[in-house]
Every structure is written in structure tokens, then in C-alpha cells.
Amino acid sequence: MARTPSPRKRIEELRTLIRTHNELYYGQDSPEVSDAEYDALIRELQDLETKHPEFSDAESPSEVVGAAAAVTTFDPVVHAVPMTSLDNAMDEDELRAWGDRIVKGLGDQPVRYVCELKIDGLAISIRYENGVMVQAATRGDGKVGEDVTANVATISSLPKKLGKGSPSVIEVRGEIYMSTVAFEKLKAEREAENLQRLANNRALLAVPVNPRNAGAGSLRQKDPTITAQRDLSLWSYQLGEVVDGPEFVSHHATIEFLGGLGFPVNPEITVVDSIDAVVAFCRQWQERRHELGYEIDGAVVKVDDLSQREQLGFTSRAPRWAIAFKFPPEEKHTILKDIKVSVGRTGRVTPFADLERVFVGGSYVEKATLHNRDQVAAKDVRPGDTVVVRKAGDVIPEVVGPVLGKRPKNSQPWVFPTTCPCPLKSELTKSEEEADTRCVDSECPHQSQQKIIYFAARGGMDIEGLGDTTVIALADAGKVRTVADLYKLTFDDLASTDVFSATSAAKLIFELDKSRSQTLARVLSSLGIKHVGPVVADQLAEQFGHLDSILGASEEQMHAIDGVGDAVFASIQRWLAVPSNVDMVESLRAAGVAFDNVPKVSLGSTLEGHTILVTGKLAKYQRDEVKEVIKAHGGKAASGVSSNTTVLVAGEKAAAPKVKKAQDLGIPVIDGEQFDLFLLTGELPSGGAK
């Protein structure tokens, strides 16, 4: 059993480790641990140093900011006013504890706080003399940074000259960042270039894994013309040295001053007068962080009154009057154990990562998508790599890229398999027209299983108790091979497997029987015809009334339906050209599945003539229910904002881009309560949403 190191030895280990990571992060823009892992190391060191003050050291990385670059082509710059770091609050309790310390330190004086978004970028100090930009420097170790003037000068949003009345000397502190649009563009260009390099047997270029690293690397380019191509941006948020400037009494006044001089100031900066309001601000932006066009990893909270800041002062490394509230990490590092492939219902073969279990984005992750063959090659991820895993919000986990500094020496590029992983070992093919590799064997059992899973899913026949695991277990037991086999299952078939108890077997038989009378729209949607999802299926079911009529409709009949045209008609024809699909329709008919169940529910015509899009959650309705309610009142349910949309209903956590697009198009936006009134009266409230 390994012995626990002594406090002194562990402190020394942590200091060495953190200095190494500081150099990788600040000096080389190539971190080998995630922010969460780095924060955990800092916290462990701080806790040990607090418990063992006899081992204190003014040069400890817990007492200094960042790191100077070990090897650089940029000249050093001594900051006239040091660029300090901030202490962190990792949860609401720590944030409130900081608020309590502020109140105690000020003797119960009224306190106002300025809340800012914590931009995930690179801190910068930009110096102007007599209104002209003369120097820009990175933070470095807080005292000495690097001169990146020529590169910062390429940022289009940054004023190069200030107007009359500007101070004779002013240093503007801010954060340089790469927008998500600019990052995706750079990433796509790099991956496309890597594919060309692969074809020509040339060494691959590193693909940026997140906007922060991409922005930092772009800022430290030797050639400013390369930086100019990367479309960097800036938010300003603080003053450094100021000579002959106005006297300020509050932080928010300095922000307004910066905006008046032409510097970009983040529009979400908010002044509040209680720690409860601070917590509410942090909660709001933790939920809404993906609505922004740039990355944030938390919020920064500062005491607004500058005289109160003087009272509170500094610790050895950070101001007492400010704190950074860190959001839960959405990126983590873990080991890529293997790369495997799965086969979908259309034969599409998708590589996925088999990972060492890691907690990221609110849940544990063991598998993550790698999209397709070209993506694996362009990212150059390999079994054995330490990789960056991202799970933003509710998005499917994704492997962003490798941590090259931790790649094993014997690493070899992964080779895409040439045969299907199913027992038939069918040959895999890839056409030049698409990036996907496919198994084209119609007898492939993996495809059959995925078709059954799709058929039974909530968006299709909605057969409760028939999820992925159950379908695969039934297929492995030889009980089902096709969709039609579901309706041949008996209680004894299910009860004889290890998957079902007597109760769950009886329940699934009941659910299968109930699904025979499912609506025509759901039957059609469950078939898996490309371009025929729930919305189009609803339209076709309402227009034709019977599955045979839909599958036999002419091109002219399809064109007569709003929103349905060549693509849908061609897709249905291609689907019918596959004999096994036709067999499935006939098997479902023989099983007694209804082909003509089109509910005719009418609650009036108050919404007649309206095409309505609902975004976000409404308190009274499930997502599927609200569409039925709209149709039952004579309206049309839209799937996106277009010129045909007449009303947008914005519920809780509404998608901000959809709301903005509706507003730009002049489409009325109403909330859930106003929607209820709209249903009753058919009249839109004056003044729009509340």
C-alpha cells in the first residue's frame, strides 16, 4: 500500500507540478490539464499551505500570477500597474461566503456589486499616450508580460487613436478572445488542410481544441498578418495606469468612460445591490452561456465603490474586493481507450470513442462521438491518447482533440475498418460524394436493430419499454430481427429472456398492442424515410389520410402541399425501391397496424391563418402537446422561424437566436400566458411579449 506523502513533500510536489502547468498554459498556450484539474491542484496547495504556515514561500505559485514564457520572440514589458489574478468561488456557498467577508470588512456599509461575464480568452493591457496606441502586453506573471503590440493592432474593434479629451496616458485592461464563429472557421480550415496533408503524406497540423487556445495562439504569432486573418475580438473591463484622467468614484463609471472612448464594452455588465442578485446573475448566465457568440467560463464580481476597494485591499496575490465565480467545467481530459464503430439504420458507420469514465457537463461520460472517418483523421486522435472531451449543455459528448504533449511514444494513427462489425463482416464502402462510410448489406443485423429502435422511439410509435438496450437484448436472443417481428412477440417469448420480469413482459405486450392504433403521422414518421420527420408526416397524414395514398402520391400531389416538394417525393421513391421496406409495410398491415388513424380534433378556429413557432418550455404543455393544441385551434405549427411565421411563442429557456430572428423579421413575440389568451380569443396582445 502506497504511503501518503508528508505535507512538506506534497507541497513541494504541487508547486513543481503547478509551475509546469503554468508554463504550458501561459507560456506555450498548450495546456495538458483541464481548467478544473488545474483549479483542484491550486486549491489543494492553498489548503496545505494554510494548515502548514511553516512551509510558506513568497515564490509559491499560490502567491503569484501566471507564468512568463520560457522561450519567446516577444520583448518583455513591465506593467506600470500589476495585472493581478482573482480568487475563485466554485459554488454558490463560496460566493455567498465572499459576500459575507465583504460586508464584514466594510462594517455593514451598503455595497453595490458590478457583475461581469468571465470571458474565456487572454488578458491584455493596451497603453495609449496622447491618444495613440503605443503598446500592448500580455499579463505574463502579472508584473512582466510580452509585447504583442503589432498583433493586437490587427483587432478591428480596437480604437487605434482616441479622441480629444482622452488622458495623456491610459492603460486599458481587457480580454482578447476568438468568437465561436471565427473558431469554427479556423478549425474547419485546419481540418480540411490536414486531409490534404494526409493525401500527400505530409505531417499534420495541430487542430485547435477550443476558442481560448486558438485565440492565445493567434495572438502570439510571429507574423501579424496571420493574426489579422484570425478575426480576434476584445472586451475592455478595467483601467491600469491613468495620467491626467478624470476622477472616478465607482467601477461602473470607469466602464462607461471606456465605452465613451470607443472601446468595446460587454453589454451584459450589470450593477446590483445585494449578494442575492449576484447569485441570480451567475445562475442566469450559467444557464444561458451558449446563447452568446463567444465562450465564457464564469462570472466576475467586483465591489463597485472605489473607496470601499481601498478599505478592503489585497491579499498577497489577489484583490479582496473581487472574485471569479467558476461555472462547472464543460471540458475534461481523459484517456481514449479505443476507437470503435457503430452501424446506424441506414448503414452509416460512425466511429466513436471508448473513454475512461469522466464526469463532464453534469454527467458521467464513457462514450463520445467522433463523427466520421475524415474527422478522426483530421483531428488525429488515437487509442491511448489523452483527449479533451466536451459536453456543452445537453449536447452529445464529443472528443474535441488530443493533448499532444501526453501522447504515448509508440502511438500509431487509427485505421478505419474495411468490414462491418456485424457477424456478416460485410464490406464497408465510401462514395466520393459524401464523408460517411456505409455498410450496404440489407441483411446487416446492426442496421435492423437500429431500425427497430428508431421505429419504437418517442418520435415514432412511442412504444414504452422498448429502448436501445431492450431491442439489442431481444435481437441477441433471436426474438426479433425486423420491425414486423415486434408484433409476433408473445408473453412467453419475453418472459423466457433475462431482460423481462413477468410484469414488464406483460406491460410491453400491452404497449405493442396499443401501438397498433397509433396515429398515421407517427406510423409514417417511424418508417425512417429521409426528409419525412414528424412535421412533414403530420402534413402528409392530414392531406392524404391513408398510408397507401401517401406512398402512392404523385409528384404533382406532393408539390401541392406547402413545404413539401421534390426532396420528399424523391426520398419516398428511393425508400420504396428497397424491397425490404415494402415488405415491412405489408408486414405492419398484416399485424393490424392502422394506416388511416388521423384524429380530427377541433377546438375552434381561433388560430386560423396563423403559423406559430413555440420555443422553450410552456408550463401547461409538453413539447408534442402544444403542436396538437395549435392544430386543434386551426393554426399551423412551425419548426423554424421564416417569413411565413406569424407568431413566436417564447417559453422558459427560449432559444435566443430564434427570438432575435423573429424580432428582426417583425414577427410578434408572446409569452406562455399571452399564448393562452391568444388560444381563447384569437387576438394578439398589444405591445408584444411581457
TrEMBL record:
Its EC number is 6.5.1.2. GO terms for molecular function: DNA ligase (NAD+) activity; metal ion binding. It catalyses: NAD(+) + (deoxyribonucleotide)n-3'-hydroxyl + 5'-phospho-(deoxyribonucleotide)m = (deoxyribonucleotide)n+m + AMP + beta-nicotinamide D-nucleotide. InterPro entries: BRCT_dom, BRCT_dom_sf, DisA/LigA_HHH, DNA_ligase, DNAligase_adenylation, DNAligase_N, NA-bd_OB-fold, NAD_DNA_ligase_OB. The keyword Ligase applies. SUPFAM superfamilies: BRCT domain (SSF52113), DNA ligase/mRNA capping enzyme, catalytic domain (SSF56091), Nucleic acid-binding proteins (SSF50249), RuvA domain 2-like (SSF47781). Pfam families: BRCT, DNA_ligase_aden, HHH_2, HHH_5, Nlig-Ia, OB_DNA_ligase. SMART domains: BRCT, LIGANc. Residues 602-673 form the BRCT domain. Coiled coil: none annotated. Keywords: DNA damage, DNA repair, DNA replication, Ligase, Magnesium, Metal-binding, NAD, Zinc. CDD domains: BRCT_DNA_ligase_like, LIGANc. Its cofactor is Mg(2+). One of its GO terms (biological process) is DNA replication. GO terms for cellular component: cytosol. Signal peptide: none annotated. NCBIfam families: dnlj (TIGR00575), PRK07956.1 (NF005932). PANTHER family: CHROMOSOME TRANSMISSION FIDELITY FACTOR 18, DNA LIGASE. This is DNA ligase (NAD(+)). It comes from freshwater metagenome. The lineage of its organism: unclassified sequences, metagenomes, ecological metagenomes.
